[in-house]
Amino acid sequence: MNMHLLRLSLGYFAISMLWLLASDPLLHRLVPDTGQLQAWALAKGTLFVVLSTFVLYLLEHRHLRRLAAEQDALRLKESSLRQAAAVFDSTLEGVLVTDSQQRIVHVNPAFSRITGYATDEVLGKTPGLFASGKHDANFYRAMWQALQAEGAWSGEIWNRRKSGEVYPQWQNLRSIRDERGLVSHYVAVFSDLSALKRSQEELDQLAHYDPLVGLPNRLLFSERAKQSLERARASRRGGALLLIDLDHFKDINESLGHSLGDALLQAVAGRLQGLVQPGMTLARLGGDEFALLHEDCSADQAAALALRLLDALARPYRLQGRDLFSSASIGIVLYPHAIRDVEQLMRNGDSALFKAKGSGRSTYAFYSQELTSHAQQRMELATALRQALEQQQLRVHYQPIFHLASGTIRGVEALVRWEHPQHGPISPAQFIPMAEENGLIGAIDRWVLEQACRQMRQWQAEGRPLEFVAVNISSRLFGHGELDLQVASILADTGLAARHLELEITESAVMQDPEAAIDLLQRLRQLGVRLAIDDFGTGHSSLLRLKRMNVHKLKIDQGFVAGLPDDREDAAITRSVIGLAHNLGLKVVAEGIEHDFQAHFLLDHHCDYGQGFGLARPCLPEAIDWRPRALPQHQGCR
Ligand code: C2E
Ligand code: MG
Ligand code: MG
Q: Which residues surround ligand 2, an ion (CB under 5 A)?
């Protein structure tokens, strides 16, 4: 029994008994002769004292028990708080607590370790301090919605450390509500995922990349090839697989040692990588076999690429202090034509490679014989084109451009011609794309530009009232940012005023990189030259872009003029282009006018200029018929 309680009860009992004994003489005095009454009163008093002591004892006992229970609960709470604090301090996960206004009120040491922020640097701030900029507003909105609706959210989130480094963390968020059900705090518990991600990347690197040369391995290459096949099927565009195998690598490896063999493979990978462009995947399949996947690639482009690769690999190597010579063979397969899957693609690549090795090595072969010979013819032509430039087999013809309303020649378009000594004239439609592939186009366009400017100067000296000479600019040269410098230097050399030169740029050239094109057009305009969009209607330029291109003229593609006036669509497009151009303050040239009725239609619809075999064919400068003519009865030089 509780001693305190015992003492308390005994004390009360003793005091009551004393009081009873003291009160006995008093009772005796009041009721002097009733001994019975006295005894009864004493007994009743005693009983009262005993009972009240007992009741007091019970009450006090209950009170003390409650007190003890409360103390126990307090002790328990303190102990669990101490445990929680220990967990809070020692856990490896970062913990951050905010109040309901998202102001940070607590962080633990792991928080500081992960984020780099000390406690006093963040208290009172909001977690917005750690925003990485990697997530958009929708992400945070969805997170808060989940938190409001379910009271919890967990997921991967990218934050920013104090050092500025952005890192991924796994985060559990919880809202804490008070007894009234209102949110009083938010608790975030998070772990740093960057080490995990890094090791995943390392594993990925090991599984998918070749350790010697750092290129994708066969596994990754197969995955990429599979995706590329699917894309090619969906877009109806073709790609090419080039399997590259070093000639006699085994001999080098065995005679000169594996370390030199490895060094050679690394050097080969480096040279191949130097030729890889966007849209290509290069891989090492194993041993001395490499593979290159080129999306969106024609047979001619694949052959040109193969030649460039062979050239690059045939240059001597300087490795470990010695000179080494090597060469390679390449097998080419075009896809998706009749290719079902990656296995078939690789099999066909192997047999093409086998064919290339069989025909003397250091060469390439297509899977199909037809393609091999076609590509070889094209390559021979490409070599011949190189000589054509040197041996001056190229000529510039000029086609008059008429002011339709007056019938006078206002300008001429320079069109290049190739007079091949054996094959006769070759159309630019045939050799310009080839020159664009093998890089000769730059030299050709510069040469034509210079010829045209000189010729224009001569016409001016002869007193011809020509306003402009138009020169075609290839998308390749156009894509090269220095076109304005080249034009300026040719104008300076030839002494032609910039306003007499018109550059024709195709719509598709502009669309390859519209922003860069708009920039270049602006610089050309500043030089003072005129600008025309050639083959207008065949590209996909938007009206907005057309306005920003700030050109002087649109040339309606001859494909639309051919259908005039009966083809309703061609007629509608032609009318709209004329209307659109005039609304934007541009002049319009119709190309490919072959018949009177086409010229009539164009005149009726206020087309400014016309060009075509029906008016005058392209010819050498001395053959041009300069006389104004009543359109459209007259025919120019033929
Ligand atoms: P383009 O710039 O659209 O040139 C007009 C083409 O249409 C020329 O073909 C011209 O001979 C032809 N043509 C003109 N009137 C008619 C006609 O009434 N009917 C038909 N069917 N055709 C007509 P060409 O000379 O064969 O040139 C073809 C393309 O080659 C040119 O198209 C141009 O894109 C390109 N090209 C020509 N010369 C050069 C050049 O010096 N540099 C560059 N980069 N490209 C050039
Ligand atoms: Mg043109
Ligand atoms: Mg054209």
A: 472, 504, 534
